[in-house]
Amino acid sequence: MKVKPAGSIQGIVELPGDKSISHRAAIIAAIADGTSRLDNFAASADCTSTLDCLRPLGVEIRRDGSTVFIDGVGKFGLKKPEAPLNCGNSGTTMRLLAGILAGQRFKSVLTGDDSLVKRPMRRIIEPLEQMGATIASDDDKAPLTIHGRYPLRAIAYHTPVVSAQIKSCVLFAGLYANGETSTIEPSLTRDHTERLLPLFGVRVGTDGGPASKIRFIKGTSRPTATELMIPCDISSAAFFLVAAACLPGSELTLPNVGTNPTRTAILDVLECVGAKLPPRKDAERRGEPADTLTISGGLDEQEAPLVIEGAAVADLIDEIPILAILGTQLANGLEVRDAGELRVKESDRIHSVTENLRRMGASVTEFDDGFHVERSQLKGAVIDSFGDHRIAMAFAVAGLLADGETEIVGAECADVSFPEFFETLASVVKS
Ligand code: S3P
């Protein structure tokens, strides 16, 4: 894929449905009683992987455009799959489904592509084994052979790494436990699981308010089917928002974007560097807030470097590749620290970002747990996506800001979260 420098970006961008919400809604709908209707279901290859893993478990699924109908088999209705379930590139599919499969009275195998089988799975094996499942792995990596058990033992689990996937996995397993299972997070991660479950009739308790880091679920709960309108994905919006912010004269509108407070840190960062985002209303519809985002181009001159560290890292975990590109446009650059988790995403994102920034002539330093990038005039270069969708899309935006042409090798991996990304970007770019 080749990208040319842009003057500005202008127009309206229709984004895909939220990936995190789509995975969870599909999994809960599969074990619900009745047929669920999920509108604006994510077009992403990752969410298709989730649907493709649910079918061999006996779940009937129909897709009509962006609407997905799921005939739930009920909490105890899943059947033993004949073959390994292929989660593709999707860590969320593997880690969340493992929670459900741990509570089944059958054996199942979860596997994935070359990237997914290198990613750490101890983080979910540990709690699921504490709950009574037995999981064989390849040195704590997939393929995972899950010997489920019913009922599982209810546990109180302190998640050792800040991860919504671990929390969700344990809460899903808690649906099959003999008592009340709880998760305690070091800091609150995206809370879609606990917002969605009540819409399917399953109560998720907290020890006080939505910002609480403790969640409880009862093993006696049974999900029932529901209808949902999934908001568009703010993590996909991030590429367009940063592009617009960095190109003065840009005017962009992004309708119906999910503005769940556990996902909006990217908007706070953009505001902090002077991007013009009007106030939002965040109207809540069926558990999740959403709003039309508009942005006008232009950034302030910052006196200090933008620093992302500590608890802020988890709030921005999927946005750091595109924030690295923003960093090249800030007077004092960007420093990211405490972000070792980036090394175990779809690629080693600290390496993917720093290597590609260097190729574009940026001044960048790599640390074990992050990187520092200075304000740099980017130059067109040949970029390696490292098979990572967010790297491909972030460097497409870098290409808009660079001198000369940028070529992104392996750009098709953008399909993992945003199949029409390059066409959509081309439709709003003005030279
Ligand atoms: C996700 C959680 C995050 C994020 C991933 C999606 C989710 O991973 O990086 O893209 O849907 O729960 P971790 O929870 O492992 O940080």
Write up this protein.
- With 431 residues, the protein is α/β, with parallel strands linked by helices.
- The chain has 2 domains: 2-16 and 232-430, Enolpyruvate transferase domain (UDP-n-acetylglucosamine1-carboxyvinyl-transferase, Chain, Alpha-beta prism), CATH 3.65.10; 19-229, UDP-n-acetylglucosamine1-carboxyvinyl-transferase, Chain.
- Helices cover 29% and strands 25% of the residues.
- The strands form 6 sheets. The chain has a 5-stranded mixed beta sheet. A 4-stranded mixed beta sheet has the order 4-5-3-14, with helices on one face.
- Helix 4 runs parallel beside helix 5 and helix 7 (234-246) packs parallel to helix 12 (389-401).
- The longest helix has 13 residues, at 234-246.
- The chain is globular and about 60 Å long.
- The two termini are 17 Å apart.
- The relative contact order is 0.14.
- The mean pLDDT is 97.
- The structure holds shikimate-3-phosphate.
- Shikimate-3-phosphate binds at residues 20, 92, 163-165, 168, 189-190, 317-318.
